[in-house]
Amino acid sequence: MVSALNELTENGNINISKDEKELLTYYKELDDYEKGRVIGKAEELAEAARRRKAELEAAAAEKAKPKIKALSVPASVSEPDPGPIEDIEEEDEEDGYIYLDFPDLPVSAGTGVYLHDDYTEQIKVVADEETTRANYALKVAGDSMEPRFYDGDIVLVETQPSVEIGEVGIFIYEGEAYIKEFGGDRLISINPKYDDIKITDSNSFYCKGRVFSVLDPVKNKYN
């Protein structure tokens, strides 16, 4: 916390970005209980980000190491010749992977699913440009976002307090979680057979992030 504050100060003056000012504005509107939840979640996200950074740095360092090849061992009187020994690559099995937070309850593309932070697990995924950008992943339940997102898809999410109109996000409304297109005063389903969900109580509405991609099922061996 102290180091973070030091980064925000320059010559004794507070120096914060537009996004940080926006977060402070939201924070000041909360009561003490809600502030405590925000701080707890922020610490959890920061720890996850540090963990992902450390994993990527470790993977990069491991890849930079020269591969070690074991030489053939000549036969001796007491031991038979085992033949050529293959390149040692077991240490590389974990290279190129990271872990993402993955709540074990799906996010609804239909009528809503209760999403609770306490049930977060982690999944191992291939490290690429998209997965390293994501803060967490969620499984879709339902067909209201077809044909863009299908039942069983795992979506990648960037944590942010709001999204633009027309963007797809993860939302909590009246205690239930949805993956929907944001329509300003409503949550929109892409599948026309589902009605929009009107937001009538802004105090029960929260944005949990922006959905920007679907986890590749072939590369990551699911479905």
What does this molecule look like?
By secondary structure, the protein is α+β, with helices and mostly antiparallel strands. 23% of the residues lie in helices and 26% in strands. The chain has 3 helices and 12 strands, in the order H-E-E-H-H-E-E-E-E-E-E-E-E-E-E. It has helices spanning 2-8, 18-28, 32-64; strands spanning 9-10, 13-14, 97-103, 107-108, 120-126, 136-141, 154-158, 168-173, 176-182, 186-188, 197-198, 205-214. The strands form 3 sheets. It has an 8-stranded mixed β-sheet with strand order 4-6-7-12-8-9-10-11, with no helix packed on it. A hairpin with a 3-residue loop joins strand 9 (176-182) and strand 10. The longest helix is centred in the first third of the chain and has 33 residues, at 32-64.
Present the secondary structure layout.
Layout: H1 2-8, E1 9-10, E2 13-14, H2 18-28, H3 32-64, E3 97-103, E4 107-108, E5 120-126, E6 136-141, E7 154-158, E8 168-173, E9 176-182, E10 186-188, E11 197-198, E12 205-214
